[in-house]
Amino acid sequence: MRRAVCPGSFDPVTHGHLDIIERAANLFDEVVVAVGVNASKRRLFTAEERMGMLEQACAGFPNVRVAGFSGLLTTFCQEHDIHAIVKGLRAVSDFDYELQMAQMNSSLTDVETVFVPTSPEYSFLASSLVKEVASFGGDVSAFVPGFVLARLTARLDEVAARPQDA
Ligand code: PNS
Predict the structure, then answer these.
(1) Does the Cβ of 99 fall within 6 Å of ligand 1?
(2) In the chain, how many domains are there?
(3) Which of 13, 25, 34, 64 allows an S-S link to 7, with CB 3.0 to 4.6 Å?
(4) Is residue 27 part of a domain?
(5) Rounded CA separation 52/134 (Å)
(6) pLDDT tens digits for 94-130?
(7) How far apart are CA 85 and CA 43, in angstroms?
(8) pLDDT tens across 28-66, in order?
(9) What is the 3-state secondary structure (H, E, C) of the chain?
(10) For residues 60 and 67, what is the distance between their CA atoms, to the nearest angstrom?
(11) Is 108 exposed, middle or buried (0-12, 13-18, 19+ CB in 10 A)?
(12) 76: domain CATH number?
């Protein structure tokens, strides 16, 4: 079985992520969407919330499943008998760091990175930008599934209502 991993933070999942996941699912027998649960990183959504949103968003893809991972991605790949990492490339600016990671990962274990060019309509899309635009009241409804938009709006409202640190 040809199995691939689509790793990321997915904080939250966007249409750009789903475009890459769907195209990976067309190329491989099984795709594992691996959600980084590194506790030291500050996220808007918990690992469970990010995984839950991905499960809902990927429900229509029968050969896609969602898992959490911590530590090295290559260790996750070894544990799950995965030999391909699929990454979306939005622009040349993504390439330097992605190439470095791909080469490091293939030097650590028997895994190839497959780069998939992001569809042009999503080439500017990043979870961080979606969060920033939404936090200032901008319309991000074109960039995330409707149920993610509702969760995002609710969470940003919660954060805005919290007392600020002195
Ligand atoms: O969505 P992101 O934040 O760009 O995802 C980055 C991620 C989670 C794919 C990357 O940071 C990663 O692979 N982290 C796992 C730790 C690891 O293996 N580091 C060595 C990379 S060469």
Answers:
(1) no
(2) 1
(3) 34
(4) yes
(5) 21
(6) 999 999 999 999 999 999 999 999 999 999 999 999 9
(7) 23
(8) 999 999 999 986 778 999 999 999 999 999 999 999 999
(9) CCEEEEEECCCCCCHHHHHHHHHHHHHCCEEEEEEECCCCCCCCCCHHHHHHHHHHHCCCCCCEEEEEECCCHHHHHHHCCCCEEEEEECCHHHHHHHHHHHHHHHHHCCCEEEEEECCHHHCCCCHHHHHHHHHCCCCCCCCCCHHHHHHHHHHHHHHHHCCCCC
(10) 17
(11) middle
(12) 3.40.50.620
Residue 23 lies in a domain: yes
46 within a domain of the structure (yes/no)? yes
Pocket lining: 72 vs ligand 1, CB cutoff 6 Å: yes
Nearest-CA residue for ligand 1 atom 19 is 72
**Structure tokens belonging to residue 144:** 């995330």
Find the domain containing 72 and state its range. 3-123
- Token couple for 142: 């074109």
Ligand 1 binding pocket includes 16 (Cβ within 6 Å): no
| The model's pTM | 0.95
Q: Annotated active-site positions, please? A: 17, 41, 90, 127
